[in-house]
Structure formats: structure tokens, C-alpha cells
């Protein structure tokens, strides 16, 4: 199938690849950029015997790449796209009954698998640029492997990438075919130090230098986003070259202009986002200027919000970018950072599945019949906490039932090619009779903001701008963004079978639709106003100062910067009280008010964290009381409880035995319960719960009798054994019963006693069955320690005489015998003669 005169570098491994695909259902191909794996191999494999007249589906991660690759493949056959080679991207299909190769974006393949798991008529699926490890590519691979195992043992899957995790073939159990390619050398140049200032200015300056130093060939410059591309376009005005932008939202004609050589032979400077890193081939590029930044979406599972972040390019991404300069001839790559910084860059970006919002994937899995992701073979399994938060959202959207199974509504949402949030907005918006407005709102939420910074946060103004633009009345918004939004809104109107509405939008209707997409971002104004709101999800949020929506009692928030303390609302709409009220339900609420030190029990009409109304709760369930009080004690600490001396002693005695007898403490089950602070806090409901009846205040907690509750933790016969091994008192030779002071850390218990009461005692008293000598605090007649010892015999033999010499003049009424061994112990003074 090779075209005359065409010999792509990857064709050198065609025999090996053909053999591998004939023998194995899954094969991995590694080929460097420019080898022709995307634009050559699908044609060469079209007539393989194992394909048997079936078609090929090739997955591309981006729309721009999918269109460009399809065009190159069709050109290789001398055809237009839509013949033997077709393409499908969202809302755009160029296929016919003659199509044998379909180049599709990732969501298209997932939709096809959901509708036809056997992939009837498809013999080969190619996953291109797999090194990017996009969420949809990982999902597609997991689904395809299950299809191969259960339904289609004849289906082939070819995983292709320019760079590759060396462990990937082994992890997939697949053979690896490697193509050396034909890359030309690229002279990589670094700056002596990292530059300061805006990246668009740095890139423009480097492009001007490159134009002067490299008169032949085109220049490809990488910037993080559209804003920076526009800044660089302005900074490069007047250069002797065609300066062209390239990003995903460009109209198709402008994308083709950036991709194809200049028809008049003029030098081109293409300012691109990271979409130009991989599949796209820009003929004639000899110089790459890399700004070193990339913009991606990052999901914060703590807030449930996704925000755009600008980060450093990874080392493998920088290699991909530099390689663009060496596809057709030796080239040069200017990296606008230092070599030292390059060594510290991350080696590769993490798989999207470990960082992304998993709501779309979770709904897809439920639609597939695998609500538990562990049922599929993943390269990296979706993180369980993110799956749980995604399920919670999908239950709020009524797309999943409580068991995680897909509902009829969820199946309907899957049919709309967008995030489940916006699918819910469109589906239910149409059911409410708001279909035309839903199409406009969904389109605007997917697009960049058409209004300039400082235009306020009200989404209603954006809808008005779109409708004014549609009426050709002119608009204060960005015409390019509004054009793209209208293109998308038109597609949604077709999907919903509704006509456009160009009347001025109702703000409350806009808010009602936003509430469908973001149920956890319904918001009530806080006391004092000032543009501060509480979201139903529990987070705080604030409008920009002076925003017109600040006076609204309630909002539906669409876009929110998660922030650290309070999020910053960038897009919202007013919410009618009736819409908020329709979502509310009565709940019993029992919680501890730390400021007043009281238990608050009331019925609350709530939407998540938002309380719309309250009523007193008179019959307080005991379990709710225990849960709230236990939570208060854990939050504030055990100091809320008052341990009597006997209760504190019991804890210390038991903890001492746990330290002294570890074989008993760690038996199964343990003989001595753990009465440490941590253990008591962990088990509050069990040991303290029965005593909490009637407790409502901090003072009530302080008066609780804790000794019986602790004693209940010692089942028979432990109380008697505790008294035997760790008695509360010891009887000394004078006949006094002296209290022992135990330490929770297991250090020896202290026996503080007047030394006169121990005359005649030779051995130090002990506890713990004789294993642990007590620590004697020998006291003067005034009760002050004069000696601390665990060796009483040594004290009588030596230190006693020093003590006697020092104290007998001060305490003449007390006995200070020359022979303490034979003198009668006493707690009294000397008898008068």
C-alpha cells in the first residue's frame, strides 16, 4: 500500500510489526516523531489477512491532530477525507460507507464501545500518542482489553507512542516493536540563567533572534495558552514572516493554515500550545523556541473543583518539542531556561487518571456495567477516594443509584458528549422547557469567558452578549470566543431539537440551570454580606469587590477558584429562593457549639451545608447525643472530662501493667485494656456513651463520674488481679496504709512515706508480683523528700546517717536512732520522759 516514492522510516519495521500483529492481540510500537507511524502505518496494514476486510479505528488525543492525520492519510491515497479515510470528532463526522480507516478523538471511541461492545466491522484499534496517558486513552485500553478477553479474540489493538515507559510492554504482556526512525540532529541551546518577565515577551524576543540567525526554515514556538499566544502575536508585529497561532479552538481553516506550508513560500512562525508536541507534523520547521511552560487542568478532590494551572514542561515533553525541529533536516531548539533547571524538571507528566476529575470515567464505567473500577485491567487503577467523590456527585445528579449502578437518567447523560454536569444541565433544562437557554449556558460554560476582565461575575451577562452577537447587533464580548460558543450552542440545540432564543435572558432561569450542573455550589450570602457566601458543599467563597451579584441573597456558582481559605467566584448567576427551597429537606441536626459549650439540637431545613430554616428538636435520640458529644471531646480534648484521683489512678495502674507485662497487653485478645488518651478518645462511644444521658453542657461533662465507666472496661477477674498486681496502697512497718502514685508510662510507682515509718524494713517494697520495686520518696517529719531510692538497705547503711546528722537537731521530737535496723517503726513523735 506504500505510495510510489514514499518510504517512511517506520516502514523498516513493517515486517516485524505485521508478524507481531498476526500472532498477538495486543502490540506496542515505539517510533520517534516523524517516523510516519500515524500517517503511514494505517494504510500499510489495511489489507492484512487478519483484518479480513474489516476497518481500523485510530485514536488521537486532540481534535486538531485527528483532522490533520486523517487529511494526510487521505492525501496518501489521493482522496479527500470521507472516502477510504474518515474522521470523527465531537459534533463533526466525515465518513461514508466506503470508509475503512476512521481517525477519531477519544470520547468518540468510548461512545462507540458503549453502543457496540463487539465493535462490529472493526478489526484493528490503534491508540496513538499513548505516552500522554490521557484519561480517555487509559479507559479505552481497559475496555478494549475486556472486549478482547470476553467478546472478540480476533480484535487487534496497537499501542503507539514516540516516547515510552520501558515497563509498558511487560505490564501489558505485549510484544514491543521499535523503530529507530530518521530524526535529524537538533542543536539544543539553553539560557545561562532562567529569565524574568512574561513568557510571551521572552518567546517573542527569542523568535526575533532566531529569524535573524536562521533565514531558512520555519519556526515553531511553544506557549502555555491562548492569552500568551495573543501577547506574542502582538509583540511580533512587523517581522518579515507569517506569524500564525495554533490552538485547539481555532477554526479549522486557520488550523490548516498553521499546519501547512505557506503557499507563497514565506517563512512561517507558528505560535502553538502543547497540541503541537506530538501527532501534528508541521512541514518545514527547522527551529523550535520553547517557552518551557504548559497549561493543564488540575482537579482538587478536597473541593471538587478543577482549575487551570501553568506548570513547567516535563523533560519528555521538552524532548518531544525539540524533536519537531529535526524532522526533515538538522535543526535548532532554543529552550528558554537554564541547563541546571532542565535537570530538575520532572521526567514525565503523571497519568491523567491519578489527577483528574473522575466523574466522566465513573459514569462511563457504570454504563459499561462495571461500577467497581477494580473489575477492569488498568495500567494505573483510578484512585479510590476520587472515585468515591465522583460517585457522590453522580448520585446528586441522579445518574447513579445508591449501589453505584447507572440510572435511566445516567444513560441519557452518557448520550450527550460532554461532562456529566453539563449533560445534566442540558437534559433537565430541556425537560423544564429551557432548552434554548440550556444550549447557550452549556456552550458558554465550556468556552473561555467572552467578556473582558472586570466585567463582573454574572453569567447572565455572557448569555446576553452571545444573543446580541447572534442578532448581529454587535457585542462587547470577544467575537472569536462568541463565534465558537455559538457554534457549540448550535450543536446543543440540534441535540435537544430546539430553536434559538434571542430574547434577553432571565437571570433566575440562568441560575436554575447552573444549579443543575453544580448542585454542591448553591450558595447563600453570609451574615454581613460583602459578597461573601457559603456553598452547599461547605466551602466559603467571595465575589470580586464591587460585583453586582454581591447583593444577591443566593447564587448558583459555576466557576470558582478553589483558593486556600475562601474561593473566588468568577462566574455565577442569581438563584431564586423557590429553586433553592425545592432542593431542601428537613434533617435532625445535633452538634456541639464550642463557643457556648452547649449541645444544639434542632431540625434544620437544609441544602447541603446551607440552613434555610430551623425548629427545636425536643426528643433527642441518645445515639445522636453520644455522636455529637464524642465529637466535641475529640475536637477539644479529654480536658473536657474531669478524672477524679481514683479514676486517674486506675488509668495509671492499668497502663503500668500494660508496660510491665507486654506479653499480656498484646495478647489476642489483650488482657489489659488500653486506657491511654488516644485509646479513650477513639472508643468514647463505647465506654463513655452510656453515661451521657441528659448531658447538654460543658459543665455537665465535667461532672460525669468516670470511675465506674473505666471500671466497666475491666471484666472479671481483672479487678481482683489489678488490686493484686498494682495495689492502690501499701502497708508499711508502722502500720500506715500509704497510697502509691502510679505513672502511665510504666515507670516505678512512687511510695512517699516518712522514713521513721520504715525503721527495721530491709528490703524495698515491690508491686507487679515482686517484679517492680517501688520508688521510695523518704520524707522528713515535715513531709519533704530527703532521699529518693529503690535500694532501702543501702540507704540505712549509708545515707541515713547523713540525713540523721542534718535533721535531728531540727526535729528533736522525732526518733533518730543510731541503729535504724532495730528501732521500732513509728508515725508518732517521741514519748515524753
Structure in words:
- It is a single chain.
- Helices cover 35% and strands 20% of the residues.
- It has 833 residues and is of the alpha/beta class.
- The protein folds into six domains: 9-178, Rossmann fold (3-Layer(aba) Sandwich), CATH 3.40.50; 186-351, Rossmann fold; 359-500, Four Helix Bundle (Hemerythrin (Met), subunit A) (Up-down Bundle), CATH 1.20.120.1080; 513-579; 584-716, no CATH class; 727-807, no CATH class.
- The strands form seven sheets. The chain has an eight-stranded mixed sheet with strand order 4-3-5-2-6-7-1-8, sandwiched between helices.
- The relative contact order is 0.05.
- The model is unreliable at 1-5 (pLDDT under 50).
Question: What is the topological layout?
Answer:
Elements: H1 14-23, E1 26-30, H2 41-44, E2 55-60, H3 63-76, E3 85-89, E4 92-94, E5 101-105, H4 106-115, E6 122-127, H5 135-150, E7 156-161, H6 168-172, E8 176-178, E9 186-191, H7 199-213, E10 218-222, H8 226-235, E11 242-246, H9 252-259, E12 268-272, E13 285-290, E14 293-300, E15 305-312, H10 315-323, E16 331-338, H11 339-344, H12 359-368, H13 384-396, H14 408-414, H15 420-431, H16 435-446, H17 459-470, H18 479-496, H19 507-517, E17 522-525, E18 532-535, E19 540-542, E20 554-561, E21 567-574, H20 577-582, E22 585-593, E23 598-607, E24 610-616, H21 622-636, H22 645-660, H23 662-665, H24 677-682, H25 684-687, H26 698-702, H27 706-711, H28 718-725, E25 729-731, E26 737-741, E27 750-754, E28 766-767, E29 772-773, E30 775-779, E31 785-789, H29 792-807
Parallel strand pairs: 1-7, 1-8, 2-5, 2-6, 3-5, 6-7, 9-16, 10-12, 10-13, 11-12, 13-16, 19-21, 27-30
Antiparallel strand pairs: 3-4, 14-15, 17-18, 17-20, 18-19, 20-21, 22-23, 23-24, 25-26, 26-27, 28-29, 30-31
Helix pairs in contact: 4-5, 7-8, 12-13, 14-15, 15-16, 15-19, 16-17, 16-18, 17-18
Amino acid at each position: 500500500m506504500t505510495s510510489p516514492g514514499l518510504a517512511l522510516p517506520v516502514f523498516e519495521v513493517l515486517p516485524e510489526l505485521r508478524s507481531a500483529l498476526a500472532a498477538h492481540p495486543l502490540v506496542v510500537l515505539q517510533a520517534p516523531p516523524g517516523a510516519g507511524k500515524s500517517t503511514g502505518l494505517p494504510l500499510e496494514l489495511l489489507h492484512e489477512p487478519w483484518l479480513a476486510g474489516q476497518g481500523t479505528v485510530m485514536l488521537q488525543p486532540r481534535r486538531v491532530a485527528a483532522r490533520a492525520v486523517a487529511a494526510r492519510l487521505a492525501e496518501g491515497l489521493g482522496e479527500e477525507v470521507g472516502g477510504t479515510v474518515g474522521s470523527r470528532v465531537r459534533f463533526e463526522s466525515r465518513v461514508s460507507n466506503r470508509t475503512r480507516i476512521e481517525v477519531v478523538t477519544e470520547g468518540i471511541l468510548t461512545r462507540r464501545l458503549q453502543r457496540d461492545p463487539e465493535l462490529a466491522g472493526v478489526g484493528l484499534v490503534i491508540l496513538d500518542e499513548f505516552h500522554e496517558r490521557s484519561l480517555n486513552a487509559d479507559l479505552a485500553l481497559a475496555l478494549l482489553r475486556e472486549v478482547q478477553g470476553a467478546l472478540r479474540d480476533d480484535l487487534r489493538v496497537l499501542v503507539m507512542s514516540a516516547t515510552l515507559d520501558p515497563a509498558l510492554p511487560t505490564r501489558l504482556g505485549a510484544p514491543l516493536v521499535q523503530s529507530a526512525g530518521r530524526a535529524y540532529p537538533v542543536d539544543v541551546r539553553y539560557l545561562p540563567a532562567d529569565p524574568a518577565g512574561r513568557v510571551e515577551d521572552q518567546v517573542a524576543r527569542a523568535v526575533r533572534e532566531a529569524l535573524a540567525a536562521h533565514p531558512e526554515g520555519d519556526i515553531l514556538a511553544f506557549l502555555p495558552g491562548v492569552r500568551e499566544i495573543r501577547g506574542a502575536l502582538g509583540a511580533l508585529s512587523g517581522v518579515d514572516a507569517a506569524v500564525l497561532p495554533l490552538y485547539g479552538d481555532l477554526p479549522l481553516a486557520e488550523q490548516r493554515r498553521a499546519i501547512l506550508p505557506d503557499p507563497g513560500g514565506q517563512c512561517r512562525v507558528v505560535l502553538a500550545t502543547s497540541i503541537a508536541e506530538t501527532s501534528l507534523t508541521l512541514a518545514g520547521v527547522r527551529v523550535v523556541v520553547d517557552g518551557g511552560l504548559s497549561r493543564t487542568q488540575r482537579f482538587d478532590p478536597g473541593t471538587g473543583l478543577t482549575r487551570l494551572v501553568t506548570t513547567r514542561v516535563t523533560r519528555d515533553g521538552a524532548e518531544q518539542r525539540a524533536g519537531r525541529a529535526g524532522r526533515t533536516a538538522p535543526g535548532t531548539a532554543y529552550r528558554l531556561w537554564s541547563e541546571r533547571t532542565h535537570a530538575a524538571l520532572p521526567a514525565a507528566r503523571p497519568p491523567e487518571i491519578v489527577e483528574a476529575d473522575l466523574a466522566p470515567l465513573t459514569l462511563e464505567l457504570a454504563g459499561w456495567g462495571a461500577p467497581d473500577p477494580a473489575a477492569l485491567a488498568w495500567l494505573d487503577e483510578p484512585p479510590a477516594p476520587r472515585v468515591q467523590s465522583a460517585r457522590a456527585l453522580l448520585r446528586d445528579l441522579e445518574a447513579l443509584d445508591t449501589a453505584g449502578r447507572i440510572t435511566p437518567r445516567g444513560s441519557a447523560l452518557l448520550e450527550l458528549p460532554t461532562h456529566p454536569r453539563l449533560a445534566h444541565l442540558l437534559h433537565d433544562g430541556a425537560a423544564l422547557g429551557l432548552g434554548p437557554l440550556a444550549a447557550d449556558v452549556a456552550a458558554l460554560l465550556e468556552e473561555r469567558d467572552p467578556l473582558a476582565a472586570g466585567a463582573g461575575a454574572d453569567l447572565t451577562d455572557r448569555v446576553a452578549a452571545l444573543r446580541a452577537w447572534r442578532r448581529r447587533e454587535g457585542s462587547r464580548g470577544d467575537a472569536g470566543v462568541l463565534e465558537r460558543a455559538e457554534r457549540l450552542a448550535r450543536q446543543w440545540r440540534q441535540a435537544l431539537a430546539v430553536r434559538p432564543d434571542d430574547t434577553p435572558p432571565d437571570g433566575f432561569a440562568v441560575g436554575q440551570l447552573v444549579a443543575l450542573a453544580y448542585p454542591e455550589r448553591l450558595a447563600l450570602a453570609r451574615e454581613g454580606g460583602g459578597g461573601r457566601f457559603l456553598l452547599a458543599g461547605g466551602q466559603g467563597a467571595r465575589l470580586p469587590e464591587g460585583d453586582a451579584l454581591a447583593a444577591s441573597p443566593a447564587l448558583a456558582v459555576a466557576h470558582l477558584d478553589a483558593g486556600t481559605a475562601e474561593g473566588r467566584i468568577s462566574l455565577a448567576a442569581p438563584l431564586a429562593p423557590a429553586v433553592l427551597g425545592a432542593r431542601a429537606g428537613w434533617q435532625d441536626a445535633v452538634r456541639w457549639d464550642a463557643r457556648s459549650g452547649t449541645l444544639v439540637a434542632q431540625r434544620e431545613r437544609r441544602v447541603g451545608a446551607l440552613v434555610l430554616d430551623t425548629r427545636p428538636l425536643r426528643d433527642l435520640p441518645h445515639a445522636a447525643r453520644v455522636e455529637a458529644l464524642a465529637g466535641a471531646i475529640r475536637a477539644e480534648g479529654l480536658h473536657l472530662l474531669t478524672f477524679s484521683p481514683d479514676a486517674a489512678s486506675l488509668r495509671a495502674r492499668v497502663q503500668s501493667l500494660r508496660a510491665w507485662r507486654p506479653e499480656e497487653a498484646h495478647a489476642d485478645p489483650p488482657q489489659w485494656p488500653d486506657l491511654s488518651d488516644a485509646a479513650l478518645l477513639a472508643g468514647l462511644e463505647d465506654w463513655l456513651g452510656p453515661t451521657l444521658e441528659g448531658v447538654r453542657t460543658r459543665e455537665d461533662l465535667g461532672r460525669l463520674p468516670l470511675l465506674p465507666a473505666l471500671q466497666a472496661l475491666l471484666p472479671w477477674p481483672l479487678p481482683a488481679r489489678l488490686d493484686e498486681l498494682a495495689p492502690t496502697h501499701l502497708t508499711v512497718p508502722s502500720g500506715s496504709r500509704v497510697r502509691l502514685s502510679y505513672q502511665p508510662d510504666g515507670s516505678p510507682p512512687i511510695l512517699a512515706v516518712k522514713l521513721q515509718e520504715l525503721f527495721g524494713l530491709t528490703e524495698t517494697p515491690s508491686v507487679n508480683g515482686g517484679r517492680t520495686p517501688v520508688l521510695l520518696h523518704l520524707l522528713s517529719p515535715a513531709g519533704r523528700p530527703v532521699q529518693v531510692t529503690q535500694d532501702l538497705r543501702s540507704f540505712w547503711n549509708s545515707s541515713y546517717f547523713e540525713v540523721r546528722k542534718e535533721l535531728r537537731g531540727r526535729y528533736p521530737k522525732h526518733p533518730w536512732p543510731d541503729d535504724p535496723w532495730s528501732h521500732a517503726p513509728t508515725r508518732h513523735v517521741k514519748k515524753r520522759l
